[in-house]
Hints:
With 124 residues, this protein is mainly beta. The chain has strands at 3-7, 10-12, 18-25, 33-39, 46-51, 58-60, 68-73, 78-83, 92-99, 113-114, 118-122. Strands 2, 4, 5, 6, 9, 10 and 11 form a 7-stranded mixed sheet that branches.
Amino acid sequence: QVQLVVSGGGLVQPGGSLRLSCEASGITLRDYSNAWFRQAPGKEPEKISCIQRSAGITTYVDSVKGRFTMSRDNAKNTVFLQMDSLKPEDTAVYFCAVRRHGFCSDSLQHYAWKGQGTQVTVSS
């Protein structure tokens, strides 16, 4: 049974930082493409970062480039999302997702497994 356990969300002031974790069991993350998504109220899920299995590269949506960093610890079978210089518009539910394909996709429907969400609220 595959499980993705997400942790690390919370309330932070603008300009602050948070670090999200997504620990996997039942699969080995490095064998797949791993992504972070977020969903704000009333909006569709948005892929914000992805480690592409085929090339080992990490991509980011423009709105988080330079502020967010995605990484993976293969020994811990965990992916992380370090979020710095947070803005109110980063407020959303964040979750990780894993795709069998070697390439990332912007559509959550293309991911085989999804972790539960964690709320990130950026507010003063």
